[in-house]
Specification:
elongated; 10 helices; Rossmann fold; Pectate Lyase C-like; 2 domains; two-stranded parallel sheet; disordered C terminus
């Protein structure tokens, strides 16, 4: 049974715990079987504490120190352990269903019979953890490539429980990346961001995004009329999401629209398919084509006047960071939420 005095101190939070430790050097906190549901324990010093069988469901344990703690049989369902230090902790038989372990450290922890179900593990360190071949996985957990790389060799049993080494059904969406010719680096960044999105989200959201660019997905065709007509048939119409990127050019006019990129936007909007528009706000070169610049500014003014919502960015990294989140929101809208998404931003 837990020490009632210790339980009351812990419920007061990190500062009270630190003060108690100063006055009781070397003494172990006895919280075995304690009810600490929804407790605010962020930054708490719980090193080597006895938390065997404790109830920490929904507890806020961000940045807390559990090094060497006994958490065997504890309930940590839906607890937030962001950046928590669990090195050498005993988690045998603990329930980590829906727990957030993003950036947490579980080096040398014991996890035999530990329940991982919809557990969020992003950039989580499981290196040298013991008992990974005996973990319990009622449902698939989220385990990103960064966690896998950081944790080293992991048993196939654990990886399969996290959906890393098993086939899965997914909905495929083609993401068309459109732009004039002045944002080559940004186009490549957008393509790479789509691939990175798949690494992080495909298994948990059951969706795969295929980046589509005219340079890589179109084939030469003669006798089909204007070039944009060929592109419309080959890559525009089959795509479900459009990402457009602008800086200071609008692009070459087509027979019907101000540019090929503008035509792609109009075709998507006419079919109520999502369009994600990004405008670079870096200073423009001094030698730009002034007529092209005028056309671009008129177009931007037009879409803003029509109530369009766009995102401005400065660097390719800024674009990638914004696009990554926007793709997640767009896929959710198209697909609907999937299990285990409680913690995803």
């Amino acid at each position: 049974m837990a020490n009632k005095e210790h339980v009351e101190i812990v419920k007061q939070g990190a500062e009270a715990i630190s003060q108690w430790r100063e006055g009781h050097p070397g003494e172990q906190l006895d919280l075995s079987g304690a009810t600490l549901r929804r407790a605010s324990l962020e930054h708490a010093d719980l090193r080597e504490a006895n938390l065997r069988g404790a109830d920490l469901e929904w507890a806020d344990c961000r940045w807390s120190d559990f090094v060497g703690a006994d958490l065997s049989g504890a309930t940590l369902k839906r607890a937030d352990l962001f950046k928590a230090d669990l090195q050498k902790a005993d988690l045998r038989g603990a329930d980590l269903s829906g727990t957030n372990l993003e950036d947490a450290v579980l080096q040398d922890a014991v996890v035999a019979e530990t329940i991982f179900s919809h557990t969020r593990m992003l950039n989580t360190d499981l290196s040298n953890a013991l008992g990974l071949e005996r973990t319990v996985h009622p449902t698939i957990s989220e385990f990103d490539p960064e966690s896998e790389n950081k944790s080293g060799d992991l048993p196939n049993h654990f990886l399969m429980g996290c959906g890393r080494n098993m086939p899965f059904k997914a909905t495929v969406y083609r993401v068309l990346i459109g732009s004039p010719s002045d944002v080559k680096e940004e186009r490549e960044m957008a393509r790479d961001t789509v691939y990175q999105w798949n690494d992080r989200n495909s298994k948990s959201m059951r969706a795969v995004l295929l980046p589509v660019l005219w340079e890589t997905h179109s084939t030469p065709r003669l006798g089909k009329g204007r070039a944009q007509t060929v592109l419309n048939e080959q890559i525009v119409e089959p795509s479900q999401i459009l990402v457009v990127i602008f800086w200071h050019r609008l692009g070459t006019p087509t027979d019907e629209w101000e540019s090929g990129t503008v035509e792609e936007i109009e075709r998507f909007l006419s079919k109520q398919k999502p369009v994600l528009a990004y405008f670079c706000d870096r200073p423009v070169p001094q030698d730009i084509d002034q007529e092209e610049w005028r056309r671009f500014l008129e177009f931007k003014k037009k879409i803003m006047a029509e109530g369009g919502l766009v995102r401005e960015f400065t660097t390719p990294k800024d674009l990638a960071d914004a696009l990554r989140d926007h793709l997640t929101a767009t896929v959710r809208e198209l697909l609907g939420p999937t299990p285990g998404e409680e913690w995803r931003r």
